Amino acid sequence: MKSRRRPYAEQRPQDLGGGVWSVPVPIPGSPLGYTLVYAVESPKGPVLVDAGWNHPDAWEALSGGLAALGLDVNAVRGVVVTHFHPDHAGLAGQVKEASGAWIAMHEDDAALVRLMTEYVATGHDDFHADMLRRAGADPGEARQAMGERPTPPAQPDRELRDGDLVDLPGRKLRAVHTPGHTPGHICLHLEDADRIFTGDHVLPDITPHVGIYPYDRDDVDPLSDFLDSLDRVSDLSSLNGPLDALPAHEWIFPDVAARAAEIRHHHEEKLERLRALLTRRPQPLTIWEVAAMMTWNRPWDDLPPTLRGMAAGEAAAHLRTLEARGAIRRVAGVDPVRFQALDS
Length: 344
Hints:
By secondary structure, the protein is an alpha/beta fold. It is built from ten helices and 14 strands. The chain has a single domain, classed as Metallo-beta-lactamase, Chain A (4-Layer Sandwich), CATH 3.60.15.10.
């Protein structure tokens, strides 16, 4: 089954067959419009894949959408979260309060949730201000780009690792660790139905945000992790035959491997353009300068400050991958951090 992206007002809960249902849950103020929350049938109550944004309208859409499909939110057995972002994990705590459901996510994202819970607001502001300064943003721009401190989602009761089966009696729903968008992002392979819940990892039209925070870290390489994870999803199709993708946004689509290959090609082209850009510049560039020169979905001057901050995170991830591949280097002993091509 395939459904094109439409405004949230035109979305409806759907019976996808085979004991799987989808419920569109609104994301207030977001151009994405909604999260597709999935329910998977089991003899002991449905298990949700993601839960949606923590907002009264979202709760009404989730609980009402389940009811329209003949399901009761109070009977939900568990919520398995593809990653900790608020449009996926936000309502998991409220579902737990209503039904006693367990909450599960990958152990790497569970660690981030604990860190977010312990982090004080003043620490968040200082962290972001210094991160933006080291990236090359001027003080005024840094203040505007900081954004609000995110509210941590509910703590998970269960932590998953790659290959674990979700507690779903009568079905085989296996966690596939696909880091990149977050360190603990997982896809979920419904092995008894040739379907894969892709979260934000593989989307049919857009690509997920892959960034580094702090921007100047040199001990991680999330974009390389993401590209490797795309290959993992493609390998599942090679082993099991074509898999239908049930993503968290946009629409359901067939042949997840074909789309994964398109996304990989997109990033390889972006990396090559960035390498060429640095090669043409005689002087090393800051992360902020690089971000301003890259191509986004709108001109840099038209991006709001918070989106400039996200763009800088994505620029940093691409710079880090080029550095790891030996195509560029970071200049030692300078603040803010700067990068240059090795052959310049």
